[in-house]
Amino acid sequence: MVKQETKQEVVLEAKKMEEKENEMSVMDLPGVGPATADKLSVSGYEDLMSVAVATPGELVEASGVGEAAAKKIIAAARAAMKMGFESGTEILKRRQKIIKIPTGAENLNALMGGGFETGAIVECFGEFGSAKTQIAHVLCVQCQLQNPEAHAVFIDTENTFRPERIIQLAQGAGLDPEKVLGNISVARAFNSDHQMLLAEKVGDLVKKQKLNVRVVIVDSLTAHFRAEFIGRGTLAERQQKLNKHMHELLRVADSHNVLVYVTNQVMSDPSVFFGDPTKSIGGHIVAHASTFRIYLRKGKKGSRVAKLIDSPNLPDGEAPFFVETSGLRDV
Questions:
Q1: Of 247, 248, 229, nearest to 238 (Cα)?
Q2: How confident is the model over 212-231, as pLDDT tens digits?
Q3: Residue 298 pLDDT > 50
Q4: pLDDT of residue 16
C-alpha cells in the first residue's frame, strides 16, 4: 500500500524546491555582471522570474546589452526556472501552499470557499458605500488574526485608509491595535505611474525587508486611470497601461503567494433598460486579469450583499452581511 503524502510533507517539499530556485540570482546568468545587474534591478528585474518573462527588447532598454545577449540571458533564466509543462499533480501540490484568509462573516467565507485565497487577485466592485473599503480594512486585520507575523500592504489612491478603523477591528478581533497597525505598510499613490511603481515595490518588502506579506490592497484600482485618461481617444492607451498594472499585480500574487485585493469603481450603463445598469470600470482588461470578481451592493436594513460573479472553481452565489464596528457579521 502506497503511503499518502501529508499536507505538511507537501508544503515542506515545495518550500525546499523554492529555496533551491532562490539560491540562483540574476548575477549568475551569463553576460550579467555587477553593472548590468544594477541596471536590471533599477528597472525592476531583480529575480529570475522577472527576467524569464521579459522580452529581449525590454532587457535591451533596461540594461543596454545587445539583443543577442538579452536573448541569451532570458533563455538562461527560463532554463533555471524550468518554465515548461508540469503535471496536474504538481500543480495540486503547489496549491497546498494557498492560504484562505477569512473575513469574519461565515456566509462570505462560504461564498469564497473558506475565505479569500492567496496567490490570486480578488476584485470587488460596487457603488459608493457598498463596503469595498471596509472589506479591505477587515482583511488587513484578519490576516494577522490568522498569523500574528503576517503583514499587509495598503496602496491608497483615494485617501481611504483609516488607522482608527483598524483599531476598532483589531479590538473586535481581540488583537493588540498597536501591533496590528505596525504590521500594515501604507503608501499614498498620487497618480497612475506612482500607483504602478508602488505595486512593483512590494517585492522589495518581501525580499529585502523580509516581511511576511500576506495581503496587498489597492483601493481603488481605477481612480487615477479614470481621472487621467479622459475621452474615447485615450481609451486604448489607458487600457494598455491598466493591463500592464494588472499583470504586475498578478505576478506579485503568484510569486510571493499573497492575496491581492483590489476595489473598483462603477458606472451606469445607459444601454441597459431593464435590470441593474451598474458596470465596473476597466472593461475586459480588469475582468480577465482578476481571478475572482465580487459585485457588492446595498441590501435591506443596512446590510450589504456580495455576489460572486466570476471564479475559476467556485459556483456563483450571494452572501448578505452587516458591517459593524467590530467587523463583518452574518445576516
A1: 229
A2: 999 999 999 999 999 999 98
A3: yes
A4: 52
- What sign has the CA pseudo-torsion 117, 47, 92, 4? negative
DSSP codes of every residue in 58-109 = HHHHHH---HHHHHHHHHHHHHHHT-S---HHHHHHHGGG--EE--S-HHHH
Strand positions, DSSP E, the chain = 100-101, 116-117, 120-125, 151-156, 184-188, 213-219, 259-264, 266-268, 278-280, 292-298, 304-310, 317-324, 327-330
Q: Buried (b) or exposed (e) across 86-97, using 16+ Cβ within 10 A? A: eeeeeeebbeee
What phi, psi does 327 have (nearest 5°)?
Answer: 145, -160
Which candidate, 73, 72, 67, places its Cα nearest to that of 37?
73
DSSP state of 232: G
**pLDDT of 193:** 96
Percentage with pLDDT > 90 across the chain: 69
Verify that 142 and 239 share a domain, yes or no.
yes
* Residue length of the chain: 331
Within a domain: 265: yes
Q: What is the pTM of this model?
A: 0.83
Q: Is the domain of 31 the same as that of 159?
A: no
Q: What is the CATH number of the domain that holds 17?
A: 1.10.150.20
pLDDT digits (tens, 9 = 90+) for 55-105: 899 899 988 899 999 999 999 988 888 777 889 999 999 899 999 999 999
Residues 54, 105: one domain?
A: no
Q: Which residue has the cell 459608493?
A: 128
What domain range includes position 77?
7-81
Total Cβ atoms within 10 A of residue 251: 18
**252 Cβ partners below 8 Å, 6+ apart?**
199, 202, 203, 216, 258, 260
106 and 69, same domain (yes or no): no
